Amino acid sequence: MADFKGVNKKGNYFDDWELHKNDYHVWRKFWALCELRRKWEWADWFYKQLDRTDGEIVAPIYWGIAGGTQYMKLCLWIALLKSVHEGLTEGLNSYDTPKSERVDISKVFPNVPKGIRDFPESKKFKHFRNAVFHCQWHPMIEKFKLSQEIVNKIEELHKKLGKWLKDEFEKCRDEFKKTLFNS
User: Burial level of 95, CB count in 10 A (0-12/13-18/19+)?
Assistant: First the structure.
């Protein structure tokens, strides 16, 4: 065990991943939350920049395909938020992770609230994200037409995700610190 300002500890934040990758309760959960929070914070930055009318975010259906920087912020907010949602509900495995090494995200996060896990507009949400991030032979205009109702639901999801990730991270961070500094 290394010495850190007079405190014995088992490891540190940069310990070899191989030593801890099967610890779903603390290590894997902590690093998953770091990743998910980082991407949520990116989405939140765009969210705070969005145009609103009468308190509602201006939905994509009201923009032209070349809507300028405000439309770009809206598209990136939705696309990044979908990535966070997918990470939390479908997994954080890289596309090149062998199937035998993939981790079922529900083992790490069995307590994801139903309202987050089973987001009803997930299919349209995914198509929109794909249209934002994937270049294709033809414009995917139909996939960019999210209604005001769907955008309002996405905003609710944004807030729920942010609160849940913040709360989970604070609890997990405390547990993670204990594993670092226990002798």
Answer: exposed
